[in-house]
Amino acid sequence: MAHITGGGITDNLPRMIPQGCQAVIWNGSWPIPPIFPFLQKAGNITEREMLRTFNNGIGLILAVPYPEAGKVLNHLQTMGEKAFQIGEIIQAPRNKGKIRYL
Predict the structure, then answer these.
(1) 31: burial class by Cβ within 10 Å (0-12, 13-18, 19+)?
(2) C-alpha 102, offset from chain centre
(3) Which residues pair with 91 in a beta bridge?
(4) Torsion sign, CA atoms 15, 58, 7, 52
(5) What is the largest CA-CA distance in the chain?
(6) 21: buried, middle or exposed (CB in 10 Å: 19+, 13-18, 0-12)?
(7) DSSP code of 46?
């Protein structure tokens, strides 16, 4: 589990990724609240910097085994939480970063 605070997804998510693995985040897999595009445009901020600085609407990331993902999403949504599958954890060579955006 990673709480996405200052440092955005880019700086917070890698803390929970095991050695030899990489988080692949699927761009467009969750709705971004309107305040973030506004801030990006007003501040002339790059997409990369937005993901490093802001949570862009994702406050908490859970990594769960793939076969359980649907159950976890359903449970969270039943509780009234907005929940989305935003990516996956894959094995990665040592020279790859801990996070990749697609």
Answers:
(1) exposed
(2) 11
(3) 21
(4) positive
(5) 41
(6) middle
(7) -
The DSSP code sequence of 4-69 is --TTHHHHHGGGGPPTTEEEEE-TTSSPPPTHHHHHHHHHT--HHHHHHH--TT--EE----HHHH
Kindly list the structural domains of the chain, giving each domain's residue range(s) and its CATH number in brackets, ordered by start. 2-101 (3.90.650.10)
Give me the residues paired with residue 60 across strands: 3
CA separation for the pair 35, 50 (Å, rounded)? 12
**Taking a C-beta distance cutoff of 8 angstroms, is the pair 8, 55 a contact?**
yes
Within 1-102, strands assigned E span: 2-3, 21-25, 60-61, 87-91, 99-101
- Scan for tokens 């359903």, then name that residue: 74
Instruction: List per-residue pLDDT tens for the chain, 102 residues long.
Output: 999 988 889 989 988 888 889 999 999 999 999 999 999 999 999 999 999 999 999 999 999 999 999 999 999 999 999 999 999 999 987 767 789 999
DSSP 17: P
